[in-house]
């Protein structure tokens, strides 16, 4: 049970996006922090080095200024006091000196120790000191600089110890000077604070981006899943309707045979009535299967359209004739008016055009309880128009908006008893558009509907 989540890397696989986001949230800020730290370290080292060089440089220039005053303690003290007042003034004016001199002492060699000859702190003048650093600097003949960390005050400074020589090169005194790096530290800490602020800001942006990205990623995954399910559904509908078609065709065939041979087979009137009910239901089942097959053909891009230039008058006339019995059963006046002067050669697929006309004229008859269904056709400009107008139940503007959507059916008292799938007009629109045509509708509730089909005329007869 323990660590089952991680078994076979399944956890990682299932939570790829979360793991990826968390990894980025950790890795990117860490890289930025590391980079900032590296930068600050190298900046500090560079500053330290240049401060050290400066400290040594100052000690040398002091030596040059004092070369001929080294024998006079008074001259030395007045020189040191001059520096002291200069440094104090700078402090008062709040000027920032990166090479801020904190103390300046000059010693004379006194046997084994060093006697203070001049200092910022005049009270200490005359006192003797002994320090290893002083001895080393004195003997080495060369200035030494040492970084001293003052842990109590949380700062550091440079201690420069340098022998002072007269103009003939004779070692006469020892300079001990401390230079504060406070000003540089302030600059550095301001720069570092700014980098950390930028870092925090970048991390917030990264986290926000990742959050947005992960929700986008989830949506994309969801979309892919829905697409997959949709495809599975299409495949299922296609397969199921194919499988259903054969048995339904067989049933239809035998019912027709039984009804045709009713007398020969001594089938009574009552049984014949049942057979005709079965036949109607089978017809409905068959048309549902055909609709589903058409939907899957269109959606999978398998709907074959073989357009040829053809005179469409006879096609329209033929379909209208097919409906004459159905119309007269409902006592509807079905008329077909064709403008004989019109161009009528259109590039269409004959079978598909018939399917379209059967659907629209069939609907007109189906949704008209009394009155007329008129079919008119004419050419105008480069187009050929077929208008199917009925005096049926019509529909509202809102219902019209959804008319060509898959499975959409107007639901009200008038349509309650009318059977349908809501697929016919969607299929019709797709087929019309595949043939380069267009379909539109105009309708008024309780008055009737007008469906208009428009096809481009075949090129050779366009005006
Ligand atoms: P079906 O007729 O199988 O329900 P269709 O896609 O052919 O599906 O039509 C969709 C809906 O459009 C129908 O349910 C009906 O409400 C409405 N409709 C179609 N033709 C007409 C018409 N001539 N008059 C009124 N309503 C119609």
Shape: rod-shaped
Helical residues, percent: 40-55%
CATH topology of the largest domain: Beta-Lactamase
Instruction: Please trace the helix and strand order, writing H or E for each element.
Output: HHHEEEHEEEHHEHHEEHEEHHEE
In this structure, how is the largest beta sheet organized? 6 strands, antiparallel
CATH architecture of the largest domain: 2-Layer Sandwich
Q: Please, what is the CATH homologous superfamily of the largest domain? A: PAS domain
Number of domains: 3
What's the total helix number?
Answer: 11
Query: Beta-strand percentage?
Result: 15-25%
Describe this structure in words.
The protein is an alpha+beta fold. The chain folds into three domains: 16-203, Beta-Lactamase; 216-299, Helix Hairpins (Orthogonal Bundle), CATH 1.10.287; 308-461, 2-Layer Sandwich (Heat Shock Protein 90), CATH 3.30.565. Helices cover 53% and strands 21% of the residues. The protein is built from eleven helices and 13 strands. The chain has helices spanning 10-14, 16-66, 73-92, 132-140, 182-260, 269-299, 313-322, 324-329, 350-366, 397-401, 424-434; strands at 100-110, 113-119, 128-129, 144-150, 155-165, 171-180, 308-311, 332-338, 345-348, 371-380, 383-390, 438-444, 448-456. The chain has a six-stranded antiparallel beta sheet, with helices on both faces. A five-stranded mixed beta sheet has the order 8-10-11-13-12. The chain has a two-stranded antiparallel sheet with strand order 7-9. Strand 4 and strand 5 (155-165) form a beta hairpin. Helix 5 runs antiparallel to helix 6 and helix 6 packs across helix 11 (424-434). The longest helix has 79 residues, at 182-260. The mean pLDDT is 86. The structure holds adenosine-5'-diphosphate (ADP).
